[in-house]
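Record type: monomer structure entry
Structure origin: computed from sequence
Chain ID: A
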Amino acid sequence: MARMTIRDIARLAGVSVTTVSRALNNAPEINSQTRERVLQVCREQGYRSNLLARSLVSSRTRVLGVILPELSGPFHASIVLHLERYAQEQDYQIMLCCGRVGGSETAALFDFLVSHRVDGILLVSASSAAPDLLRRHARGTPSVLLGDVSPTATLQRINAVSTDNYVGGAMAAGYLSRLGHRRVLYLGPRRDSVTHVLRHQGFLTIARERGMEVETVFNPGAVSSAPNGYRLARQVFARPFPQTAVFAPSDAMALGVLQAADELGLDIPGRISLLGYDDIEYASLPKIRLSTLAQPTGALAESAVRLLLELIDSGGPGEVTHKLIAPRLVERNTCCSPQQRTAV
């Protein structure tokens, strides 16, 4: 069966090709009755306009490319949901690609999106290599990093939106200090993540000011997952454990700590207080009720899309913007004031 063309639609609707084009583009020069007649014929015939062909005329596809490391985790899934919702409210669609920064496929994903004439690119990444990746591969295409920019990357003119992770780490330390914790385990930061580095710096700054003793156990893995949190927690719980609180720099890692503590009979928060970061959907479940620092995924996604659309509409690089959004403390059931405890 031959594919329906715009000329076929014009013939069936009894109008000109120009009128069909105006109807499909919602142009003001056509009255509502004619537009609806043309659109009805399109629906009946299963006709869809060619976005790439239209983009050659309008210089816009109204498609935004999004690259993120993975979709299996609840944090990134929530980010994508909000990105798509806000983009659609602005009459844009998203083209989603998954690829971890540093992987061989990431450069190919940029080429793929640029070749499909996306109007702009959003890179969701906490990697320290992300700014350089945008600079090299998104040249000529408006782009925004949804993630932190390290101080050493500020000269690369990267537009970015992120949670204020330094402040978030400081808030975590301040909260545990107010509860009375003086010996804390910081479990699972990744050295290759700018986000984790900033959270760690903020936490340690306040901990030093408050006279807290902090032991850090780094996550050598590539992701902050529940299995990695479980593995690290089993290792530290297998030795003498004098700390009264654990801060995990992601809720996924904290869920792994919960599992390990449950298997070993360590009561949370009776023996160990546990604080996470992100406020993923699972954190509020009745059997979990994880205390955490909430990242406002809706506000992050909306701010990133809005900034990208401003860059697209301006037609030039403009001023560099790095928007920081404050996290929020969510107190639930996994943190309390320390009581007399016996070291494991």
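Annotation 1: Residues 340-344 have pLDDT under 50 and may be disordered.
Annotation 2: The chain has twelve helices and twelve strands.
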